[in-house]
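SECTION: protein entry
WANTED: fold as tokens:
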Amino acid sequence: MSTTMRTLPDGRQYTPSLEGMPPRSLAPSKVARIVTIVALTFTMLYFILPIIWVMFSATKSNADLVSTNGFWFGHFELADNYTKLMGWTQGLFWRWVLNSLFYSTTAGVIGTLISVAAGYAMAKFVFPGRNVSMALIMAGLLMPVALLTIPLYVVFHNLGLTDTVWAILIPSCVSPFGVFLGRVYAESSVPTELIEAARIDGASEARVFFTIVLRLLAPAMVTIFLFIFVATWNNFLLPLMMVSTPELKPVTLGLYGMMSYFAPQKGAVMLGALLGVLPLIVLFLGLQKYWQSGLAAGSVKG
């Protein structure tokens, strides 16, 4: 295979690509490939090593956590740690997990519908103040969640909604990022001609949205749902401020109470953290192909 220089009709010279290989300008160099592999390997280890550490720590006692290697077993006390976990939580641990599932799933479903509805309206309807509204919504991305927790507590306390499920659900259903992603995806994936054809056929706006638009926005909806689900599941400060009844606590708040106890059984806490994160892992693995396509929403406008 020849790699000699070639000459264009205008006199410029170039090196032709090898047969069966991409053009030189597109093929990554050996150094680039090595750097990419090393970077991806470190990234993978950064995310997976804490999970492995928790898996081993969940089988240890307090003494073993100090005296043994963090990435190997000590005295295998998984059953004892589970008994301690159930005993300290007075049997409420799985109730807390179910609470987290309820809060996260409900907020994810409602928040996703609100986000795609608002994003679709921003993308396909022309009304006064549309750009200003979008700018205000995007400004919400700049506001730290912790900064909004105290004002939210004051509002919900005055409404008499503190220490209820609504104090967690209502704030969790709002997602500025979801509205942004819904608008971007609607602009690129919902043909205006299709909407107009449905209107000509006599379909109402509600029917157009629920029977046509939602199907086209499915990949973005999965991504928005996952973002809201994970954010609600991991939210700690909001439940800490809003609820005090043990039966209403999510798993994050429940485990915090266990760690704040004098001389906690850390292996049992690690077991609770491991069991508490399993639903997130299953959800991400099960919906992986959908949320990846949703993240690419709007990257190519057709």
The CA atoms of residues 96 and 250 lie 5 Å apart. Residues 96-295 form a domain with the MetI-like fold fold (CATH 1.10.3720.10). The first strand starts at residue 6 and ends at 7.
